[in-house]
Amino acid sequence: MTTFKRKFKFDPNIRKNISENIKKYRKLNGITQEQLAVDVGVSYDFMRRLEFTKGKVGCSIDTLYKISVVLNTRIDKFFE
């Protein structure tokens, strides 16, 4: 059986989008980076770098899920 590589268009800026949306929804909820870090269970420095580096630092799906719960935001909103 021959398998052919299918063509997909992957967004090269997805991590940047996620980073910016975390910041957006955090601010909409009036939560500081420090409080979000405490609630999610990560260091303040990690949360700061996640937002500040605009996608150069990524996070696990588990961490993204926790952020979505704390910010009361559907996880798919971070990908827009």
Fold topology:
Blueprint: H1 14-28, H2 33-40, H3 44-52, H4 61-70
Strand content: under 5%
Please summarize the sheet with the most strands.
none
Helix and strand run: HHHH
Number of domains as seen in the coordinates:
1
Structural class: mainly alpha
Poorly predicted tracts of residues: none
Rg calculated over all Cα atoms: 15 Å
Please report the first level of CATH classification, the CATH class. Mainly Alpha
Mean pLDDT, to the nearest integer, reads 92
**Principal-axes shape call:** elongated
- Overall strand count: 0
Q: In words, what does this structure look like?
A:
This protein has 80 residues and is mostly helical. It has a single domain (14-79), classed as lambda repressor-like DNA-binding domains (434 Repressor (Amino-terminal Domain)). It is built from 4 helices and no strands. It has helices at residues 14-28, 33-40, 44-52, 61-70. Helix 2 crosses helix 3. The mean pLDDT is 92.
Concise account of the structure shown:
This protein has about 80 residues and is mainly alpha-helical. About 50% of the residues lie in helices and about 0% in strands.
